[in-house]
Amino acid sequence: MPVRSLTQSVLRWPRPEQVLRQVQAWAVEQRRAHPSLQRVGLFGSYARGTASVGSDLDLLLVDSNAHGPQHQRLLQWPLEHLPLSCDALVLTPLELEQLLASSSRMAVELNADLRWLD
Hints:
There is one protein chain. By secondary structure, the chain is α+β, with helices and mostly antiparallel strands. It is 37% helix and 19% strand. It has helices spanning 16-33, 45-48, 70-73, 93-101, 105-113, and strands at 37-43, 57-63, 86-91, 115-116. Strands 3-2-1-4 form a four-stranded mixed sheet, with helices on both faces. The model has no long low-confidence stretch (mean pLDDT 92).
C-alpha cells in the first residue's frame, strides 16, 4: 500500500489579500503596457470576498481595441503571470455597457459582484 512521504513538499494556497495585491500589480503593469486597456475588474468569489482554497480568478478587461472572438482577444494578455488560474472576459466599453444593460445571468452576476481595480 502506498504511503505518503513526510519529506514531500507542502503546497499552500495564497491568502486572498496576497492574490488581490498581485492582481492589482498585474493590472497596473498591463495598463502601462496597453494604453487601450481602460479598466480591469474582478467578479466572482474574489470580488465578493468569499474566495477560499481552490478559488480561481474571474477577471473583466475593458479594452477599447478589443476585436475578434474571445479566444483571440485573450491571447495578448499574460494571464499566466497571475497568481492563480484565471477566467477572463475581454470586452470593449460598448460591449460592457450592452452586457450590463441586458438581463442575462452574466449581467446579473456582474452587476452584483463587479469590483474595479482602479
